[in-house]
Write a structure and sequence with these properties.
The chain is of the alpha/beta class. It is 31% helix and 21% strand. It is built from twelve helices and 20 strands. It has a five-stranded parallel β-sheet with strand order 2-1-3-4-5, with helices on both faces. A five-stranded mixed β-barrel has the order 16-17-18-20-19. It has a three-stranded parallel β-sheet with strand order 6-9-12. Strand 10 and strand 11 form a beta hairpin. Helix 11 (322-335) packs parallel to helix 12 (362-385). It binds iron/sulfur cluster. Iron/sulfur cluster (SF4) binds next to helix 5. Iron/sulfur cluster binds next to helix 5.
């Protein structure tokens, strides 16, 4: 909408076409919701405009995951109201409609996440759709907010777990898997439109199909079970990179590793482990067998030696003792994960963990966070240093003004991992695969040259 908004869609405005402004905040899952709404708006003939002044109304897709995201979302709503006045709120914060209305009683409508129909109903009520919808304007792959060569593919919504630090199930509800035929059709459309990398997302990717009892669906007339391994195998036939995110550590994850070894899936697993102390894991209501996790990691590496394992952890969870934190550091040293994110526990309003005894004081949380990061930095750096001299395939994301190509390898998911900087890459094009030889390694990134 202006320089402070994260997403916008510049387009010339004709005086006959109703125009909608769009502000998209939050995680990749919210981004997919935004893409659906934008696709529907375009399909019905609305224009999506980049400034508040040109818009007849503004939709704000909000995030409510942590307190700072709530603040950012409330600020964005306030800005849209000041600048335009006609505002529809959707997304995770919208699930707490009372809180939003308390701040801003004059909103046109407030809906929760994943509420395409409710949002469109509100748009129709306040800004009737044009009589002659430009259906042809929406390409079959939809309107994408990501660069053209990669796209997020959301396979389900909601989550059946009740991790005590998380309020996502209360905002987004229990697991609802999309029919496998629909997911595969969307993936195929994206690939036909030029997408080179599909990033599979959901709140709980491993649970795909549990809610619909792994029902058999059809893709191009062929029966397929709504189950993660079947879905991953079918996606692997599309001839593009397929990367799995948010894979809860269920035993069925083991079945994916052979597909990675065969080259059908990228050898990359984003598997949030959250802690290593059995007591803390239990208090988090997460799988608590750390020995088993280490054994599984070893097995995965035997089957697929190139596998990159990314994980996230929480330090300073209520009641975490120094000894339990040490257990976590020892686990890190033994597990030698490639990519690791760490969060200091922060009490999100509505999370059941807030009621647990012995909250960890802020300075202790910070000190543990620093020690955690230092421990992992060494491991990650050693792992990256081990890649110098190797050749690898990368996907080019951008060409800089100075003529470097910025690319990613199989080990790098967009936005969250590192990059491969190709110093002689000026002639490459965005969205192209290239073969590079790695010449140097830093803390997060690699440098290389085309072979
Ligand atoms: S599995 Fe993920 S989304 Fe589900 S409750 Fe746990 S942290 Fe939240």
């Amino acid at each position: 909408m202006n320089s402070t908004t994260p997403e916008h869609h510049p387009q010339a405005r004709s005086s006959f076409t109703p125009a909608v402004g769009f502000v998209s905040l939050g995680c990749p899952k919210a981004l997919v919701d935004s893409e659906r709404i934008l696709t529907q708006l375009r399909a019905e003939g609305y224009q999506v405009v980049p400034t508040y002044q040109d818009a007849d109304l503004v939709i704000v897709n909000t995030c409510g995951f942590i307190d700072s995201a709530v603040e950012e979302s409330l600020d964005a709503i306030g800005e849209a109201l000041d600048e335009n006045g006609q505002v529809i709120v959707t997304g995770c914060l919208g699930a707490r409609a009372e809180q939003v209305r308390e701040h801003y009683p004059d909103l046109l409508a407030v809906t929760g996440p994943h509420a395409l129909e409710d949002v469109m109903r509100a748009v129709h009520r306040h800004l009737p759709k044009p009589h002659d919808p430009y259906v042809d304007l929406a390409p079959p792959q939809g309107v994408k907010l990501t660069p053209r060569h990669y796209a997020y593919l959301k396979i389900s919504e909601g989550c059946n777990h009740r991790c005590t630090f998380c309020i996502i199930p209360s905002m987004r509800g229990d697991l609802v898997s999309r029919p496998i035929g629909e997911v595969m059709q969307e993936a195929e459309n994206l690939v036909n439109a030029g997408v080179k990398e599909l990033l599979v997302i959901s709140q709980d990717t491993s649970a795909y199909g549990v809610d619909i009892k792994y029902r058999t669906g059809f893709w191009n007339g062929r029966p397929l079970k709504s189950q993660l391994t079947a879905l991953a195998g079918a996606l692997g036939e599309l001839g593009v990179w397929v990367r799995l995110h948010y894979v809860y550590p269920y035993p069925n994850v083991d079945d994916l590793i052979p597909l990675m070894a065969e080259g059908k899936l990228l050898p990359y697993l984003d598997i949030p482990l959250q802690h290593a102390s059995p007591r803390i894991l239990k208090a988090m209501r997460r799988p608590a067998n750390t020995e088993n996790t280490l054994a599984r990691l070893r097995r995965w590496r035997e089957i697929c030696p190139d596998i990159t394992v990314r994980s996230t952890f929480i330090v300073g969870f209520p009641g975490e003792t120094e000894e339990e934190f040490q257990q976590l550091l020892e686990f890190l040293e033994e597990a030698e994960l490639d990519r690791v994110g760490c969060f200091m526990y922060s009490p999100v309003a509505g999370a059941t963990a807030n009621a647990l005894a012995d909250p960890v004081p802020e300075p202790v949380k910070e000190e543990r966070y620093q020690r955690f990061m230092e421990c992992q930095a060494e491991i990650s750096m050693d792992k990256l240093a081990g890649k110098v001299g190797q050749s690898m395939t990368v996907l080019v994301d951008a060409i800089t003004a100075s003529g470097d190509a910025v690319a990613r390898s199989a080990a790098d998911a967009p936005e969250i991992d590192g990059t491969v900087i190709i110093e002689n890459g000026a002639d490459l094009t965005v969205g192209e695969f290239a073969e590079v030889r790695i010449t140097a390694a830093g803390e997060h990134d690699l440098w290389g040259e085309t072979c």
